[in-house]
């Protein structure tokens, strides 16, 4: 398992992407502010009913084949401006503090508010991506797709063979040096001291 700081924090790539998404959110907030200041028209579309009939309050537009409704609602623009600006600033703040949980939570909320099928799809999937990387770090010790799959295969092989396996020892076990061959004792060096031969005594 990766260290707690790595799981709860952000690496360089994640932090850069978080700051980028936070700035994009502020850009959306400025757009909504302009729409509020100019009291821009809000246009809603819907599919026509049978025989090109439209729901109440909608009119059929032949050029697009859809039913449309136009209205002016400055309160709706103001609400979108406030929510997007607050969540965008929250993403930037938590990215500066390297808080993975904060960035992921605010990105998911912003994605749901803007609509997963519309502008919010990028924010929603970014928040889910951060949570997925945290899960990989916690379980496999590697946030990347390739690294986590490699560790998962090694863990499955260890379970099949009945061996104990820990992701923290994968790198250590792969780089473990082979045992050195046993050293043999060197023969003693010949003595330089001369010992004369004993002469046999005559009888």
Q: Please list the strands of the largest sheet in the order they lie side by side.
A: 1-3-2
- Cα radius of gyration in angstroms: 35 Å
| Poorly predicted runs | 168-178
What's the number of extended β-strand segments?
Answer: 3
Largest sheet: 3 strands, antiparallel
Proportion of beta-strand residues: 5-15%
Distance between the termini: 90 Å
Number of helices: 7
Strand and helix order: HHEEEHHHHH
What structural class should be given to the helix and strand makeup?
mainly alpha
The level of helicity is 55-70%
Overall form: elongated
The pLDDT mean sits at 80
Primary descriptors:
203 residues; mainly alpha; three-stranded antiparallel beta sheet
Summarize the SSE layout with pairings:
Layout: H1 4-8, H2 12-37, E1 41-46, E2 59-61, E3 66-72, H3 74-96, H4 100-119, H5 121-140, H6 145-161, H7 170-174
Antiparallel strand pairs: 1-3, 2-3
What would you say this structure looks like, in words?
This protein has 203 residues and is mainly alpha-helical. The chain has a domain at 4-41 and 73-148. 57% of the residues lie in helices and 8% in strands. It contains seven helices and three strands, in the order H-H-E-E-E-H-H-H-H-H. It has helices spanning 4-8, 12-37, 74-96, 100-119, 121-140, 145-161, 170-174; strands at residues 41-46, 59-61, 66-72. Strands 1-3-2 form a three-stranded antiparallel sheet, with no helix packed on it. Helix 2 (12-37) runs antiparallel to helix 3. The relative contact order is 0.12. Mean pLDDT is 80; it is low at 168-178.
């Amino acid at each position: 398992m990766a260290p707690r700081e790595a799981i709860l924090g952000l690496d360089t790539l994640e932090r850069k992407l978080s700051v980028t998404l936070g700035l994009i959110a502020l850009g959306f907030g400025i757009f909504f502010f302009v729409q509020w200041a100019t009291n821009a028209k809000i246009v809603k579309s819907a599919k026509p009913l049978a025989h090109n009939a439209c729901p109440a309050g909608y009119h059929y537009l032949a050029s697009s084949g859809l039913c449309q409704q136009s209205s002016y609602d400055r309160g709706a623009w103001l609400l979108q401006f406030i929510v997007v600006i607050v969540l965008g600033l929250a993403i930037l703040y938590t990215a500066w503090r390297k808080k993975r949980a904060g960035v992921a939570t605010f990105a998911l909320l912003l994605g749901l508010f803007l609509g997963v099928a519309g502008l919010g799809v990028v924010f929603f999937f970014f928040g889910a991506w951060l949570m997925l990387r945290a899960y990989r770090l916690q379980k496999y010790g590697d946030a990347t797709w390739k690294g986590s799959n490699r560790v998962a295969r090694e863990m499955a092989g260890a379970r099949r063979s009945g061996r104990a396996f820990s992701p923290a020892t994968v790198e250590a076990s792969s780089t473990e040096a082979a045992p050195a061959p046993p050293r043999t004792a060197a023969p003693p060096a010949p003595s330089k001291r001369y010992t004369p031969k004993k002469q046999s005594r005559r009888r």
